[in-house]
Amino acid sequence: MPRFYLTTAIDYANGDPHMGHAYEKIGADAIARYRRLRGDDVWFVIGMDEHGQKVQQEAESQGRDPQDWVDEVAGKFSRVWDRLRISHDDFIRTTEPRHETAVDALIETIEANGDIYTARYEGYYCDGCEAFRKESELVDGHCPLHPSRDIQTMEEENYFFRLSNYRDRLVAHIESHPEFIQPLSRRNEILRLLEGGLEDISASRSKVSWGVPFPGDPEHTVYVWFDALPNYISAVGYPGPEFDERWPAALHVIGKDITRFHCVIWPAMLMSASIELPKTVWAHGFLMIGGGKLSKSEAQLLNLENLIERHGPDAFRYVLLREAAWDSDRDFPTVQAFLDQFDARYEADLANDLGNLLNRTVSMIARYRGGETPRSTNAGGIAVETELDRIAADSLEEWASAMDALRLHDGIEAAMSIVRGANGFIDRNQPWKLAKDPDSAAELDTVLGSVVRALVRVSVALSPFMPEKSEEIWHRLGGEGPLPGYGEFDALIPEKIADSETGVLFPRLES
């Protein structure tokens, strides 16, 4: 089985989970579930970034011990991911001993290679992204990612990493590995950044106490990004012998605002330590309201628990990935506009198209064939191919191509084209009329059998996005056990549907 190690950015423990966090985790989970369908040995890791100045300040503002605070926040995130059926294999926290062991080993290796030295830093610091900023990066005297915050001037003695030594190696790697930074727009951004050269960066802080002690100097703590980024290797056993069983990562999924850290600083750290680079870093866009990144106040209006409860976790997963292209931003003019579109998409795609297709199919098989799935075959015992079978086969090829390319929204569209094709096929062939004519029995079997085959394919294709509802479709069709894998459809078409009186898959909205 091909190994596929998948990670997301670890979430910062200074607040509650919101829709932006969910968008990333749901997208990565869809990728993980798809790779499992294809037969890969997937290892999927998410987690929490629990050190640093912002976490310490937030805990102090609450009158809390930092460790108690991050334990509480991590619990909130973990419960939400369980509610959303995120299928992660590990939940790494940067306060864990295994992580501190990995950070120590990595920094000691980098230092042994001559890439750590001490110097005095004087310049700008954005506490919003906990990053040192060059004057040329500021926009009207502010960090471009946190324009509402005042930029700080900072002066302190730190340990520094010789990032400047790796500019040429980074450019060479990016140019020779076009898959390394995706999508293309992010790759171009990083290459433009590298054109201007690189400056060495801090690897420690002397004025932040909440963090991993810097190896060999407990007066310093490891700078938050030097602490956070190694979670990708600490989660798979670095520096132990088991590390090579999973590394390198096949895919890092991150937000577009942290590409510099993941596509410049992180690979340079790995190069310094002679560790193989991840295969691909995918930087997704943002869900935005009124042209801006989702603010904390808007995140409260779009309360994550309420959104999940609105139509259930699977519908929430579906709508987020259907409405927001995985390679670009999605902007809604207002919070209400998002809610209206959420309801409209749920009603049109799920209640009307998919839910109606399943209900009418199960009902017709129960009424016209006593619940037995028709087996319309030719003289050779092979199922009679219909127009709908060809639509489904073509759509599945488009689905696989889109999912391989991480175009998740296109993967959903390809799966739903089977649903629309099946509804149209039923309307054109009118099985309710065929059922009235004994001479049309074979034709009725062909129509109903084709629709069942299409629905089995739909249940598999939509399972990365809606794992519970896809299982329900499979079981309503009479399937037993887990969903079939990709390419296993024909051998596993159920013989008898389940109780046709089972509840509605997606209840219609009340006016």
Quick structural overview:
The chain has 511 residues and is α/β, with parallel strands linked by helices. It is 48% helix and 15% strand.
Q: How would you describe this structure to a colleague?
A:
This protein is of the alpha/beta class. The protein has a domain at 335-492: Isoleucyl-tRNA Synthetase, Domain 1. The chain is built from 18 helices and 17 strands. It has helices at 19-37, 53-61, 66-83, 97-112, 167-176, 184-195, 224-228, 231-234, 259-272, 296-301, 304-311, 313-323, 335-369, 387-404, 408-429, 431-434, 441-462, 467-476, and strands spanning 3-8, 11-12, 41-49, 90-93, 116-126, 131-133, 152-161, 181-182, 201-202, 204-205, 213-214, 217-222, 251-255, 281-284, 287-289, 292-293, 330-332. The strands form four sheets. Strands 1, 2, 3, 4, 8, 13 and 14 form a seven-stranded parallel sheet that branches. Strands 6-5-7-9 form a four-stranded antiparallel sheet. A hairpin with a 2-residue loop joins strand 15 (287-289) and strand 16. Helix 12 packs across helix 15, helix 14 (387-404) runs parallel beside helix 17 and helix 15 packs antiparallel against helix 17 (441-462). The two termini are 50 Å apart. The model has no long low-confidence stretch (mean pLDDT 92).
